[in-house]
Amino acid sequence: MDILREIHRSRMTRFQVMAVTVALVMILLDGFDVAAMAYAAPALSAEWGVEPVMLGYLLSASLFGMAAGSILLTPLADLIGRRWLAVGAMFVITLGMALSALAPDETWLLVCRLLTGLGVGGMMANLNVLVSEYASDARRGSIIGIYAAGYPIGATIGGVVAGPLIDALGWHSLFWAGALLSGLMFLVALALLPESLDFLIARRPAGALEKANRILVRMHREPLAALPEAPAAERSSSGIGEIFRGAVRTRTFMLWIGYACLVAAYYFANTWTPQIIAQASGDKALGIQTGTLANLGGIIGCFLFSGLALRFRSQRLLFGALAGAAGAYVLFGTVFSVVPVAMGTAVLLGVLTTAGIAGFYAVAPGVYTATARATGIGWMIGIGRLVSIAAPILVGYLVDGGWAPETIFHLFALPLLLAAACVAVLALSLRREAAARHTVPATPATASA
After folding, report:
1. Chain segment 376-416, per-residue pLDDT in tens
2. What is the pTM of this model?
3. Is residue 447 part of a domain?
4. How far is Cα 140 from Cα 213, in angstroms, rounded to an integer?
5. What is the CATH number of the domain that holds 270?
6. Domain count of the chain?
7. Is residue 112 situated within a structural domain?
8. 71 neighbors 46 (Cβ within 8 angstroms)
9. Residue 230: its pLDDT value, please?
10. How confident is the model at residue 442 (pLDDT cuts 50, 70, 90)?
């Protein structure tokens, strides 16, 4: 694996930057497509008379699809490659957004949001892996932070255009815009997104040497006469087998539980805050503005994590973000009745929760080898989402049952504290392994941890 080690220790080339940039734009559109439902919810509810419980299901549909896509589709990236799964997933997203725009009723829209989420789920973890494998060791944590910013950037753009677009053309227009942009990005990815060198060398699909050499030439490196020998552990293990073997099993469960708790709190705030603020203030536009501010805070959080990752370990940053987010949820519930203050606090919520997501994206690749990396991260996101989809639905029942929004925000501080505890256990496990080896190899599997 000398060629991979040399690449990861070297400065990034323009080709590597291009690969990361394409992935960033793809995840940006994912943020737009998923957030579209939250921004369309007030107008859609008024037009169709959607009850809170059904609205909860509509808001959770894409999350359920994302969970299914992460679990069922992402492991394919360890078999067929990162590139083709990403391109195929973008096509599914385009189809789902177009069909959502044509939805005549709640049931149709529910199915279309499931389909859109399926594509997003198959793409998110896969692109996370591709970015981590094309990033250099020195910049991996920072680049993952920037990559993670793509999702809230897309959601924020959705918030900026949602108000004028819905006022002028109706809520359907927001989904048409997502379908058009996703379709264009499908063509861009088909033309520009490269395959992962780590995958080609670890899995050795047909034509792997030729494909690897074409990539190396574009990186201004000498072509290989033969593929380097893969470690025996990577040649003999399956992706699923690795994530449940030995000490990795405990780390896998800590990732699952921690990430699930974080995204449950994140998607509660992300999907319900616009509706809750709109109802509390009687102003639908104010609800959209508050959701936009939270996503703006998410962008700041990702870039803040990216900058801090140049100096501090990703595990420590992740723990701090989760603990801080728990406090921010309590604060938001406390000041909720003062809408201007609550809107400012929404920015802080976005900063800390999205920094936490960036932290999990940066830490998770360090737990697995290239053979299981897509499977491991995909299942982390998928299992997490299976738990998190209950959050918007639960909140729908709580709101219908008369729970005050302040109390609901206080409630969701608890899973954030549990997530912080899981990260502490994960860090301890990795530290013990490092101490046993006396050194931590500088590979893409460990450098970002």
Report:
1. 998 998 888 787 777 877 888 888 888 887 888 899 999 99
2. 0.78
3. no
4. 23
5. 1.20.1250.20
6. 1
7. yes
8. no
9. 63
10. very low
